[in-house]
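Shall we go through a protein fold together, starting from nothing but its sequence? Label the sequence line and the structure token line clearly, so we can match residues to local backbone shapes. Would you write everything just below, so we can both look at the same thing?
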Amino acid sequence: MFFIMGITEDRKDFELNQLITCSVCGKYGRFIVFMTYTVLSLFFIPTFKWNKHYYVQTSCCGSLYELDPEIGKAIARGEQVEIRQENLTKISSGGGFSSGYKKCRQCGYETTEDFEYCPKCGTRF
């Protein structure tokens, strides 16, 4: 008998539509909320997660903030919450994104990649 197991780092993105005026670059943008965690997998099935951290990145300049864990857990449960400046701890300033997100005018798909055509519907960006 043998066991196939592994420990890996992973990331989960959350849906949150909160528009902001960035305190770093002054542009309009939105928060990109995600969680990083360590996971133990047995037979390729994730069984145990630990070391969870919640982060917020701005779509305009890419500034990165650590999010208060209680607010992060509420977002993970699907609750509608408003992220305030006092819930954030700055990790790095902007400058990470040169042009931010590209949004397809046909289907609304958003990406940070430099595609010429939308990977979802094929419309030219």
In short: The first helix runs from residue 69 to 76.
